Amino acid sequence: MSTTPLRVALIGTAFMGRAHSQAWRVAPRMFELPRDVEMSVIVGRDAGRTEAAARQQGWHEAATDWKQVVERDDIDVVDICTPGDSHEEIALAALAAGKHVLCEKPLANTVAEAERMADAARDAATRGVLAMCGFSYRRTPAVALMQRIVAQGRLGDIRHVRAQYLQDWISDPDAPLTWRLDKEKAGSGALGDIGAHIIDSAQWISASLITAVSAQLRTFVTSRPVQGESVGLGGRGASGAERGPVTVDDAAVFTADFDNGALGVFEATRMALGRKNANRIELNGSKASIAFDFERMNELEYFSADDETGLQGFRRIQVTEPEHPYLEAWWPAGHGLGYEHAFVHEVVDLVRAIDAGSEIHPTFDDAAQVQRVLAAVETSAGDESRLTKVEKK
Ligand code: SOE
Hints:
The chain is of the alpha/beta class. 32% of the residues lie in helices and 25% in strands.
């Protein structure tokens, strides 16, 4: 255990920058951590916005040049919250400079980038430097509990994995063309943005890897206003604004084979009106079933075939008790948590792993595996021969 604080640089000031800032601020206040955390510097492209973010979020300094920041001797951890097109460059520079790295998901925009990052992370690990990818939902207590229950073997042989991630923030065809709709910046659309989360959860919870997919991608709205007012992730285009092409998928569906013999069905869309953040996963095994829906994030549904006949049924486990993952540090039993807490738990686990010199998951290798699934989905969706036409009579 070291007595020197961990000095953190965070790159990115938008949604994820705010979520991670909050996590760095709160983690040492709610959890017993082996190291103090110093929120040293936040980095953004726009000096004014970055200074405002530093003031509001509690960073000591604001900076605009990430290259200079990752080289600084007084930085130990680099937290990457930028769009996917800059992840590789920043992560490689930070790892080469000996900094621990937390990188937002998806790890990269292509398999080649992700694999180079995974190689660099493996190499850095030999020097005691850690790298972690921010698949935050793993650390939502109910999801962590689900993984624990499955790891205890309570489901028996896993037969089905059913995962959906449904949002609706681009349902309006006049919502503006933001970076998440630009392939250059984001890599892909619903597939990489939210499909990556359920691929990661499914592989982690089932302790099994996807080995093959059959997929379809669809872009329902192919052009959008280039200017507009952002509201949350979506918003409304300015009236009469020029329209530019949407270069990513709006929705992705695929079936999957897992290496434990399970069959998977996946759906990711940001156009399911009324579904706000329905990140759902259900596993059916030979002995039990278990299901989670982020819209009811403090609950799990569990069915056991061992329960007395006549009293069988899905039971609702309220995941708010001190014996559940992460919860003993929070509120008295029965009081739930929110979206932001998973990011706090990420920081808690990362700080503890850095101090202990132990591995931290998801590793860049785990995240590169997700990236290979994303690429396989795109390849499959681009191959018309996988479709059998239904004749009209
Ligand atoms: C947008 O779809 C988004 O913010 C994702 O980028 C996040 O990863 C997810 O947690 C919530 O939705």
